[in-house]
Amino acid sequence: MTYCVGLKLSAGLVLLSDTRTNAGLDNISCYRKMFFFGNPDERVITIMTAGSLSVTQTTIARLEEAIEDELADETTSILKAPTMLRVATIIGNTLSRTRRDISDQFRDLKQQASASMIVGGQRRGGDMRLFLIYPEGNFIEATEDTPFLQIGEHKYGKPILDRVVTPATSLADAQKAVLLSMDSTLRSNLSVGMPLDLAVIERDACRVTTRRRILDGDPDFARMSAAWSAALRDSFVKVTI
Q1: Are 142 and 6 in contact (CB under 8 A)?
Q2: CB contact set of 128 (below 8 Å; sequence gap of 6+)
Q3: Is residue 131 within 8 Å of residue 118, measured between CB atoms?
Q4: Tens of pLDDT along 124-146?
Q5: Which secondary structure element, helix H or strand E, spans residue 30, and what is its range?
Q6: What is the spatial distance between Cα 20 and Cα 74, in angstroms, rounded to a whole number?
Q7: Peptide bond preceding 135: is omega within 30 degrees of 0, i.e. cis?
Q8: What is the C-alpha to C-alpha distance for residues 60 and 41, in angstroms, rounded to an integer?
Q9: pLDDT tens digits, 198-231
Q10: Burial state string for 48-64 with b = 16 or more CB within 10 A and e = fewer than 16
């Protein structure tokens, strides 16, 4: 399984994913789940993936193949699409087609392959947008009322986001929020694991402004996790019923 989270704020996007993939307790691997596409100073697109690795890898490969196609146009290439809405539509269609193709191969085994994606970015002159794309290819968008989207094992990390994240949250506080959200998930679910990939896209920059891989044993992450645990214990003791 996995956990990915994206925040859409007034100041920009904050994105975080883990890298664990497991096909059983004795078959655990590490695969990148955050992918970047773009043209310098013209557009930036980030995709985070969760679900069947065969579906997500094939979908990303097909998107890359479409970009490199000499006949690519605004209906097939996410780097030529005129809006982020069109980018989400291309990715959704590609994901849906890939899921059906792979599921057809599994039909005799009575198995299903499924995946979902978070897509965020901005085109020069357009709005910064963040979408959650479902396996069927349809999608929803982050709004001011719900400025974050999650895929994978999202339930453990959702409470802190519900309590602290608003569109006005600063990029610094947002990074802290997604990391604490991930920390809660890591503690509660063994199918989510290090390393972590963190990215920040500042509004109107049209590029990834911060990119960081957080390895197991990272001292800053460990210090933050310990401080958060201590703060929760102290608050618990102070609460009366």
Answers
A1: yes
A2: 8, 12, 13, 84, 120, 121, 122, 201, 203, 204
A3: yes
A4: 999 999 999 999 999 999 999 99
A5: strand 28-30
A6: 34
A7: no
A8: 22
A9: 999 999 999 999 999 999 999 999 999 999 999 9
A10: bbbbbbebbebbbebbe
CA-based angle 138:207:97, to the nearest 5? 25
Domains of the chain: 3-216 (3.60.20.10)
Q: Determine the Cα–Cα distance for residues 167 and 130; give it in Å rounded to an integer.
A: 13
- How many whole angstroms separate alpha carbon 55 and alpha carbon 91? 12
Which amino acid, one-letter code, is at 239?
A: V
Looking at beta carbons, which pairs linking 31-39 to residues 24 or more positions away fall under 8 Å? 32/197, 33/2, 33/4, 33/197, 34/4, 34/197, 34/199, 35/60, 36/199, 36/208, 37/63, 37/67, 37/78, 37/79, 38/79, 38/121, 38/206, 38/207, 38/208, 39/79
pLDDT of residue 29: 82
Report the pLDDT value the prediction gives residue 110, as an integer from 0 to 100: 61
Q: Does position 23 have pLDDT exceeding 60, yes or no?
A: no
In sequence order, the 6+-apart residues with CB closer than 8 A to the CB of 138 are 92
- pLDDT (0 to 100) of residue 6: 98
Picking from 30, 35, 28, 65, the residue whose alpha carbon sits closest to that of residue 49 is 35
Residues 200 and 178: their CA atoms lie apart, in Å, by 11
How many C-beta neighbours within 10 Å does residue 166 have? 14
- By residue count, the chain amounts to 241
